[in-house]
Write a structure and sequence with these properties.
The chain has about 425 residues and is of the alpha/beta class. Helix content is about 35%, strand content about 25%. The protein contains 13 helices and 20 strands. The strands form 4 sheets. Strands 3-6-2-1-9-13-14-12 form an 8-stranded mixed beta sheet, sandwiched between helices. A 6-stranded antiparallel beta sheet has the order 16-17-15-18-20-19, sandwiched between helices. A hairpin with a 5-residue loop joins strand 16 (about 300-305) and strand 17. The longest helix is centred in the N-terminal third of the chain and has 16 residues, at about 15-30.
């Protein structure tokens, strides 16, 4: 018997009526004979409210570690409410169902509270429940570390929960969200955006890491590592209403026609940190980024250039806005030891990227990008590339203009 993990995001379970629609979608899959597990997010807006409460509680006293573990206790409660409500609704429809918290499954994580990574999911308990004909409704976004403390997986972590559970129980994974698939760019910015029938794991990984909100990066990594078939669907339809909808995230070999560029992604959650007058000798970069890594600060784009002073260099790198203040504090604390002159932070920036597996075998992709931005008067501050993507850092005010210009430049509205 086949197994299916269905995941529903916050907008899909935003109120009781939407939870009832989710229950109908679950019931339709159960009726086909599948063993079904369901992963749910907190109701729309609830996590933001809980995070605001933790912010309102204030900072830790001097000499006391930040309460990241207690932060997790608070913000994980939103998914618990949704899981219980959906399990109740399914029971009221005559289905056997029960809710599972992350620690009950158990979803075992490391201890990086607030952005924990899943280490393992022993499948025995869950598999037994599914084989007994029970719908398992699992609170997403959360797990338990090896000390028995609740840990959360970071924003969008319910996607990761769903894919990891699908891998553990050897099932497929359907991600239901507020859009009906993966688009060439954000349809709210570009009305001509097109839905992709298929997208490769690698392209989806780049899109997710570069700002596309459809799937969380870690969930795509897991899907690719374990070869879990993932389908992105809309939850705002009734069962059977939209056959053939959605986007399948799959291995590149399953995509017959390779597009040069498949999508344009953007992120406004960026901060640029500039270091001036760095000593230009080996070991300096290692010292800076080693300290940031030890503090779990994720660094993205990096560029270094010679300063006007001989033997000195300037460096710019980006981090998430939430980590910006901490990153500045970390490098300032090392200023005397490293010997740089000054540090500055700019949060008024955005990252815009083009992604496509076809870049491997086509030239001129970068030229098209830079020309399209130049034609619109958009200045590029930092450039970063990989085999299948090109990212640029620009002034935040030009984000939407840049996205629309690039979408048109690569003919994505013609797909």
């Amino acid at each position: 018997m086949s197994r299916l993990v269905m995941k529903f995001g916050g907008t899909s379970v935003a109120d009781l009526e939407r939870i009832r629609r989710v229950a109908r979608l679950v019931a339709a899959e159960v009726a086909t004979g599948k063993q079904v597990a369901v992963v749910v997010s907190a109701m729309s807006g609830k996590t933001n409210e809980l995070v605001a409460w933790t912010d309102g509680a204030g900072a830790a006293a001097q000499g006391i570690d930040a309460s990241d573990d207690e932060y997790d206790v608070v913000v994980a409660s939103g998914e618990q409410v949704t899981a219980g409500l959906l399990a109740m609704t399914l029971r009221n429809m005559g289905l056997r169902a029960r809710s599972w918290m992350g620690w009950q499954v158990p979803i075992i994580t490391d201890d990086a509270h607030g952005k924990a990574r899943i280490d393992e999911i022993p499948p025995e308990k869950l598999t037994a429940a599914l084989e007994a004909g029970e719908v398992a409704v699992i609170a997403g976004f959360q797990g338990v570390d090896r000390q028995g403390r609740i840990a959360t997986l970071g924003r969008g972590g319910s996607d990761t929960s769903a894919v990891a559970i699908a891998a553990a129980v050897k099932g497929d994974c359907d991600i239901y969200t507020d859009v009906d698939g993966v688009y060439t760019t954000d349809p709210r910015i570009e009305a001509k955006a097109r839905r992709l029938a298929k997208v490769s794991y690698e392209e989806m990984l780049e899109m997710a890491s570069l700002g596309a909100k459809v799937l969380q990066t870690r969930s795509v990594e897991l899907a690719m590592a374990h070869n879990v078939p993932v389908r992105v669907l809309s939850s705002f339809v009734e069962p059977g209403e939209a056959p053939g909808q959605g986007t399948i995230v799959c291995d590149e070999e399953e995509i017959v026609e390779k597009r040069i560029v498949s999508g344009v992604a953007y992120s406004r959650d960026e901060a640029k940190i500039s270091l001036f007058g760095l000593p230009d000798h080996p070991g300096v970069s290692s010292e800076i980024f080693g300290r940031l890594a030890d503090a779990n600060v994720n660094v993205d784009m990096i560029v270094q250039s010679h300063a006007r002073t001989e033997g000195a260099a300037n460096m710019e790198f980006t981090v998430g806005k939430r980590d910006a203040a901490r990153a500045v504090d970390i490098v300032r604390a090392a200023q005397k030891e490293i010997g740089f002159e000054d540090v500055a932070v700019d949060e008024d920036v955005a990252k815009v990227s083009v992604i496509g597996v076809g870049m491997r075998s086509h030239t001129g992709v970068a030229k098209t990008m830079f020309q399209a931005l130049a034609d619109k008067g958009v200045n590029i501050q930092v450039i970063s590339t990989s085999e299948i993507k090109i990212s640029v850092l620009i002034e935040a005010a030009y984000t939407e203009l840049a996205v629309r210009a690039l979408h048109a430049a690569y003919g994505l509205d013609q797909l």
